[in-house]
Amino acid sequence: MAAETLGEPRDRKPSLQGSIEAFQDVVSSAVIIPKEDGVISVSDDRTIRVWLKRDSGQYWPSVYHTMPCNTCMSFNPETRRLSIGMDTGSISHQGKVSVVLFVLEMEWLLSTGQDKSFTWHCSESGQQLGTHRTSSWVSGLQFDVETRHAFVGDQSGQVTILKLEQDSCSLVTTFKGHTGNVTALCWDPVQRVLFSGSSDHSIIMWDIGGRKGTAIELQGHSEKIEGLCYASHTRQLISCSSDGSIVVWNMDVTRQETPEWLDSDSCQKCEQPFFWNFKQMWDSKKIGLRQHHCRKCGQAVCGKCSSKRSAIPLMGFEFEVRVCDSCYGSITEEDRAPTATFHNSKHNIVYMHYEPTTGCLLTSGTDKVIKVRKKYCLY
Question: Which keywords does the record carry (predicted)?
């Protein structure tokens, strides 16, 4: 079955380049083949397919292969190796394989599964080199070749950093900033920052290279984060969520950490008691108020002292959030200038892949359709 292809975009806005619809089930993973105008797809209907674009501009199936079961894949364009994760846990897992990652420089195949394990194998001999037990089902995996650090995100919302050796590993550190499970990880080896996306709708940028524990929040989605990709040549982060929204973040700006929320028994502006502060309520003969927090300064405030709303893009708040009245007065129009652009993919996304050499972005959705967009890097 041919796939629909649209014309070249006339401007720099993201434009649909083509779509592939010949699937019986949801495509769980797909990648763009660079230099060949092709797509490799892995579907829940147990098929692996290679689609090549013909002179007519349509994607046609070139290779069709059926597997007993499959869930995820890792494709290396340099060696043209395709690694497939299986529902059965094939490799060495007792449950479904959730992520596979091939590391050419080490000839390692990293994998994680729903059996709460992380393993790495020699890709040449197939021999298992090591394994590490995790506290929760692993749902995200990235690797830094230079330091041999593996970044493992799990369903508890925690990210673990492991130092891998040929046959052993050691725990470097763990950090947690999400209230939901980690759904996506993306590593930038140049700036040495790790991006994590979560079911809590947020993205966190962890400054690993800075060694200061800096964590920058990005709030621009209203549903679960399904994918993260980083374009290092333009310093842009591309994120997508399950409701079909795609956000392109400008990371070439100086961003600020969001403050910790302060604890208080009374409003830190007008000193009116909060509703659990019975002693002050009795002494002042006043009704207790509900507690809120200013997103800019982190102070505990009442509703009357935080009646304003404002976007604070450099703190990651692209949409308007609650701020106290004094902070609102300090925010300029320049401070409100957006640092991200928002786009609608027009299908509920389950997977995303970005190909930097062509600037193409691929998404697959619950509608069993793959969409390829051209020129996704803006600004």
Answer: Endosome, Metal-binding, Repeat, WD repeat, Zinc, Zinc-finger
